[in-house]
Each structure stands twice: as structure tokens, then as C-alpha cells.
Amino acid sequence: MRFRRFAVAAGLVYLTSGLAASVQGTSQGQQPPPPTSQKPVFTSTVDVVSVDVTVVDKYGKPVEDLGRNDFILTVDGQPRKIASAQFVAMHRDVLPSAGIALPASSLPDFSTNTVQEGKLIAIVIDRGNIAPVRSRDVLAAASRFVDRLDPADRVALFSIPQGPAIDFTTDHRAIASALQRIDGQGDAQQGIKNIGVADALSFERRNDFAMEQVLLRECGQIPPDGPGASETRMCRNMVTEEANIVSTYAHERARNTMNGLIGILQRLGSSETPKTLVLVSEGMVIDNERRIVQGFGRAAAAAHVTLYSLKPESSESTAAQARMAANPVRDRSIKEEGLQYVSSVGGGEMFRVIADPDFAFARVASELSGYYLLGFEPEAGDRDGRSHGISVKVNRDDVSVRSRQEFGVGLSKGKSGKETVTDLLRSAVPATTLPVMVTTYMFQDPGSLKVRVLVAMDVDRPADPKEKFSVGMVLVDENGNSGASFFHPALAPSPQSPPGTQRFFATLLTDPGGYKLRVAVADSSGSSGSVERNVRAYMRRLGPFRVSDLMLGAQTPGGGAAAIVPTVTGQTTGDTLHAYVELFAENAAMYDRASVLVEIGASADAPALQSAAAHVQANDTDPRSRAIGVAIPIGSLAAGTYVARAVIVVDGQKAGTITRGFQVVR
């Protein structure tokens, strides 16, 4: 069996006996191995749309025992049939769903967007609407809230109108530290007169009765043609001017908040993975200017965001105030109205922070500990790419339902494939409409010290397997810099792909180092999928050799007995497993003293169940490298997980072993 290696535009292709393995072929099953714990799985089918809904009792604890018949869902006022109701517990103290967990070393190595690890929580600090003094306690509580989150939870931090901005990360310490350095920038706008927000809006609405009450309170009656008449008129003019300043400032801060929120939603992209925004603000005045909140519901629906508001309560009188507000209750109600609106439209709730800010954050944490994923059957008009009103109710008393008021399928439909893919590659949030499975193999670049990262990807395409889609990927280093990238605008399904699945390979040439690989796909209907995977782009040193990853594969359908293609999910259904590895040595004479044995065991250290001596072949273009391949019979192996081992032997002594897990599916 002869192996030769070369690169094409779409990636690395491995040949045996001169027969090319298709870059889009596959011989493995479509489904990944079952997870080792009960985790939420997000999939998409032709006839079902998923909506996330939270149902809590009066203490804020999620209600977990509801079935699909307990929910009533309407779209634009019309009922829809609920196909499923899955409760997703967002905590990690659950046992494996089936038997004993398998050792990590035995599991196939791939990443997927079909399993969600942890919650996605973005904390938004509305600095322009928080007084500096009052911000300290609530921001310290926000820092403690982050410290208590599950290590798998990803947290982001945003500031309005400016301040620290950190994208989703599991580095909770960085978020907590940044929160401790933020302060409020809100200005109470104390004027000469005691004009509150309610008073100012009365002048803006030209409410003659309310205006006269304020003028009488601040200036008194105008004396009839007396010496004080001119002073009283001047006072009235001053009150009117001050009311205009107060209302203008309140609207400006509200616009800043709404523009900041919508910008954050757009930054989060159109990923279908549920996310939570926790907005900390003392208020947002939308009275007389509701147009500023237009589009928020659509943006929240497109980003699949649930929004909670935490409102620190100000005392009735502070040292900064010359006197108590004239209408404190009305002022408070007006400031709360905007927060209540965005919380309601965003499917969350507004909580007042009165004495103990930790209590409010604990309530949010409780509500975030579980939610329902409802699958409902849409009608044709629901998939028009527009935003629709949605309502979810529960046939049970004494519970509260948290759900967004708008939803839409394909709300990003107007974007090109390249725009959608670019947005997904910029975001650490996975998109899940198209299930994607990704694995990587590291190889030495023969002409340099760079590393070739072979990216192998399976895309589940349930809607239309004949439709082309866009593919993009990028390697990002720890400083956020791009190491290498790839984009294909319109990849057509291979005729060798199983129905509903597309397999694709690409090669990224990069300097050695640690990276995050982001892979994204999108089709013309607006469906998309993305995956993030940690990559160590290094060649391992075993004795005198630099060694690539151990690549596993199987026979390509229709490609002949010798043609192979790399596996993605590590699954194989055939009777033969193909293994491939590359060696590099500065001194080519070392190959005369070396041999390679490939074994299969139940684990990395278990006795060999099958073994075969690998064929070592010289490279036609680089005498320092060798291609090693072997076909191992696995027909006698029972279904389960195994480990393939390539044992490097030099002068009769083992120099080292490289391994790769795989799964036999019968």
C-alpha cells in the first residue's frame, strides 16, 4: 500500500495506491457518541422551531415537572402545536444518563455545537444611569455573583455608554476584577429649582394643570402689578428652562442606554444558543419617547437573549440633594418604566435592589438554573424572516413564565453567507441551527517550521442537502490575533455524503502555538452553525522524530479498497480502520533504525486487541519525512470505544506512543 501526500485548495488529501480520497466523502455515522452527562442538546429539524422559556415559582426556583401539554403557545395570537418540552437543568451535579462515565482518553476527540456547556451570561452596567456612590455596593455584589457561577459558565461584561468590554469567557476572575474597577457616572442634574423627572415631562407634554401646580410650588402666585411680579415671572421662566434641561437629559441617557443595548445584542450575533443579559441601571425614561425602544424586541429575538434588570433604589434624600424630591413616587415609577419594558419584552424581569444587592443577584442565579426548550410546529408564515409576536402560558397557578414577546426564524436572512459567517467567527457564542462536528489533525509543513492544521468537519443539513453553503474558519491566538483563516463561499454537497450530511476538509498553515479554532457555516435560508475548539498546533517530539497526530479514517464509499478519508466524530461502522501518521527527522538515516507498530486497545494502556506493522514510505519531495499507514481489521470488535496507538520503536526500544480514540458502531 503506497501513501503520498499533497495539498489542494480545499485542504489536505491523502492518497493510497494512487486513488484520491474525496475531500467531501464520508464513511462514518452521522451522530456523535452520547455525552457522558445529561447536557442540553440543541438540534434543528424541518418542522420544529425551538423557543426557550423559563417557568419559576414564587421563590424564583425553576419548575421542572411540566410536560408539553402544560404549555399554551400562540404566534400572532394563533395557537401552535407544541411537539416537545425539554427541561434543561443548567447545573453540573447530575449523574451520567447511561451507566458509568467513560474515561476521557477513550473518547473520540471532536468538538460540536450540539451540546451546550454552561450558561452564557452578559452583565451590562448602565454607568450613565447609576450614581457613583450607590454603584459601589451593587457592583461589588455583581463581582460576587460572577465568582459563584459554575466554572463552565461563560460570562461577558459590557458598559454603557463606555467602559470595560470583555467578550464571553470562562475567566471569571477577569470579569470580577473589572467589575470592581467600574463606577457609576450618573448625575442627578441638581438645579436651582426642585424639578424632578415627572415635573419635567409635564412641561414637555404641555400639561397646563400640572405645569401650573409646579410653578405655584416653586414660585408662588404672581402678585398683581406689585414689585414682586417681575421676580415671579423670572422664576417661572427659570422653572420652565430647568424642566426642559431635566427632560432633555433624561431622554439623552435613555437613548444612550437603548443604543448601547441594541449594539450589544448585535455584537452577540444571531446565534440560537440562549443567552442572558443582566442589566444594572437606576432607570430609563421612555415616557413621551417610546420610539427609542422600537426594534429592541426584534434584536433580542434575533440574538436569543433573555434580559433581567436590577435597579438599585436611591434613598428619598441624599447629601447631594438640596431638598427632597417633590414627587419621589412618580419619579421612581417613570424611571422604572423603561427597565420594566425591556425586561418584559426581553422575557425576563426587573428586580429592585433595596438593601441587600446579593439577594437580587441570587434571585437571578436561581431563575437561570433551568429552563424549558419548547419545540413547536410553525406555519408557513412563521418562517418569513420577520419578527412575530409570541406568547407562552402555563396551565398551573402560582408560577411565573419568562419568555420573549417576539421571535423570528431566519431574522438574519438579509445577510450574505459571507457576512453571516464573518459575524459568527467574531463571536465566541456558538450558533446551533446547523449541527456541526469538528476535529483537527496536526502535521508538519514540509517546507518550513510551520504547522498544517487539518480541519475535518461534518455539517448536518436537514433542510435541503442539495443547497450550497458558506464555510469559514479562523485560528485566534491568546492575544486575539488571527493565526490563519479560510473561507469558501458556496460549497456544494458531495455525492458521496450520506443524506443530510456534508463533510468538508480545509488546511490552515500557522506558526506553532496555542489557538482557538472557530468554524462557522451558513446557508441561504439564514440557518447557521458554529463551533469553537482549542487547538495546540505543535509537533510532538518522540526520540529523534517529530511526529504528527495519529489520523484515523475508513474506506471512502465508491473510492476503491485503498482510498481512505479522515474521520470527524471518531465513529466507524466498517470492518477496517485506517491509521496514518507522519514522521520527520533531521537525519534520514534514523528511519533505517526505526519501525512503527499500530495497536488497538480498550484504553491507552490496555493490552492490544489488534495490532499491525505499519508501512513506512519515503516522501518524494522531502527526504526528512516519512508517511506511515496501516489498515487494521476491526470486524471482531464489539460496539464501544477504543484507542488506536502508534508505537514508535528505535533500535528495538520504544521511543514513544501517540494515541487517538475512536468508537465502533454496529
Strand percentage lies at 35-45%
What is the CATH level 1 assignment of one domain?
Alpha Beta
> CATH H-level name of one domain... which superfamily?
von Willebrand factor, type A domain
CATH architecture of one domain: 3-Layer(aba) Sandwich
Give an overview of the whole structure.
Helices cover 20% and strands 36% of the residues. It is α+β, with helices and mostly antiparallel strands and 666 residues long. Among the domains are: 1-30 and 545-666, Immunoglobulin-like, CATH 2.60.40.2550; 49-106 and 371-407, no CATH class; 120-188 and 226-367, Rossmann fold. The chain starts with a strand and ends with a strand.
What features would you highlight for this structure?
20% helix, Immunoglobulin-like, seven-stranded antiparallel sheet, 37 strands, alpha+beta, single chain, Rossmann fold
Give the helix/strand layout:
Blueprint: E1 3-8, E2 11-16, E3 19-20, E4 49-56, E5 71-75, E6 78-79, E7 81-89, E8 111-112, E9 120-126, H1 132-147, E10 154-160, E11 166-169, H2 172-180, H3 197-204, H4 208-219, H5 229-268, E12 275-280, H6 296-303, E13 305-312, H7 328-345, E14 350-353, H8 357-367, E15 370-377, E16 388-394, E17 400-402, E18 406-407, H9 417-426, E19 436-444, E20 451-460, E21 469-476, E22 482-491, E23 501-510, E24 513-523, E25 528-537, E26 540-542, E27 545-547, E28 551-555, E29 564-566, E30 571-572, E31 576-584, E32 594-601, E33 608-613, E34 615-618, E35 625-633, E36 640-650, E37 653-664
Parallel strand pairs: 9-10, 9-12, 12-13, 13-14, 30-37
Antiparallel strand pairs: 1-2, 2-3, 4-15, 4-17, 5-6, 5-16, 7-15, 8-19, 10-11, 16-18, 19-20, 20-23, 21-22, 21-24, 24-25, 26-27, 27-31, 28-29, 28-31, 31-35, 32-33, 32-36, 34-35, 36-37
